[in-house]
Amino acid sequence: MSEPRCNSYYNATINEETQYPELEGELRVDVVIVGGGFTGVATALELSEKGYKVALLEANKIGWGATGRNGGQVTGSLSGDEAMTKQLRSRIGSDAEQYVWNMRWRGHEIIKERVKKYDIACDLKFGHLHTAYKPSHLKELEKTYAEACLRGMESELAMLNKPELADYIDTPLYHGGLLNKRNMHLHSVNLCIGEARAAESLGSLIFEHSAVVDIDDGTLATVTTAKGKVVANRVVLAGNAYHKLARKKLRGMLFPASLGNCATAQLSPELAMSLIPKDVAVYDTRFVLDYYRLTADNRLMFGGGTNYSGRDSKDVAGELRPAIERTFPQLKGVDIEFGWTGMAGIVLNRIPQLGKVSPNVYYCQGYSGHGVATSHIMGEIMANAVAGELQEFDLFAQMSHYRIPLNEWFGNQALALGMMYYKVMENFR
Ligand SMILES: Cc1cc2nc3c(=O)[nH]c(=O)nc-3n(C[C@H](O)[C@H](O)[C@H](O)COP(=O)(O)OP(=O)(O)OC[C@H]3O[C@@H](n4cnc5c(N)ncnc54)[C@H](O)[C@@H]3O)c2cc1C
Known about the structure:
By secondary structure, this protein is of the alpha/beta class. It has helices at residues 9-12, 38-49, 81-92, 95-117, 138-150, 162-165, 188-201, 247-250, 269-275, 316-327, 371-386, 391-397, 408-426, and strands at 25-34, 54-57, 73-74, 125-131, 157-161, 176-185, 205-207, 214-217, 221-224, 228-237, 255-264, 281-284, 290-294, 300-307, 336-346, 353-358, 361-365. Strands 3, 4, 5, 6, 11, 12, 13, 14 and 15 form a 9-stranded mixed β-sheet that branches. The protein starts with 8 loop residues before the first helix and ends with a helix. One of its GO terms (molecular function) is oxidoreductase activity.
């Protein structure tokens, strides 16, 4: 049964709602993609640009999953940067650092180019502020700053001390911060829908309310929904934390973590601008962090907390209110108009997972809360792989990953324990 969009700020401010049909009958295409979030849509668009005949099947609505629920922050971190570099060193030697560094910004370029080329209205803005929650956290920001300078980004970054922070944010909380002008923030659902329309304009066939229930992989693959079938040379699984397909091969690799997000009622433009005068997106240095920004219509969108049980919280706005009021005491009692949760796909070593479950069935998942840019990079790598350029696909497909050989519930408890450990260790950072 297809589910409606959640009650989020994004869904209340969609430029134009999608009306794609449910799949009925049988279709024959080159590639069928399962899942209509950023991963699926970005892959569909790349493949359509290359001239492939693509069908995309989404169980609910385009952008219904994590893509329609996130903080909209396009970060220059892939989450598993260090682990990735370490593993790549044994394969590509000293090129590993530069490869991962370039990848950190590759998603930004793809998104900027798409927004321009297909004229997608998605409130794209530049600027992030990474704030030091404790004085001792300044060291890691300084390390990032030094690395960025070494790699030629000094004009785009700046270390800010506590008094300098006041030009960017009106809060007593932090001890300094790192400003990054290359990072971006945007309206996630409007970007995803805009990309889906671009793919459609190039010939992609898009279906909503079309959950894939079975995949039969022979010389050709057949995917089945309640009312139809698609026969294709290749299948790409892009359901991330929301799908239960290919469990035999994928069990124990990815863990759904429920993340909360909310948006206040519209603030006066003066109040909004007094909170974050340069309209940058903000996040702090803690392991379980707060992340927030202003929306185009002057709300504060605020996310934080993570529930690794794999279940959604019942009152996300209530849970986030204390953090909002601690950050901005001037918002005490503010009306929180939207509160929602979403499932992010957490990978233990935080390296995105891509590979094949069988010769014709590819998968791509697990960006550990950093997927806005990463899903676009992975979409490019997946489309190249389908087109026979396997170099980067193989680099990722050969990464080692931990697998927790337990069912999802036990896996999530193990993950929750691990996270508790990091939260305790936070006290000693
Ligand atoms: C609250 C929250 C905040 C976040 N904040 C940020 C952020 O600020 N910056 C950042 O970079 N990342 C953030 N992320 C992570 C980011 O949103 C995700 O990594 C990214 O959107 C993943 O995209 P996806 O397409 O892989 O998965 P999803 O967007 O989850 O899409 C998967 C889709 O597959 C569909 N599907 C599942 N099963 C089937 C099936 N059997 N048949 C057909 N369709 C199926 C689902 O309906 C869903 O629409 C956040 C995530 C959450 C939850």
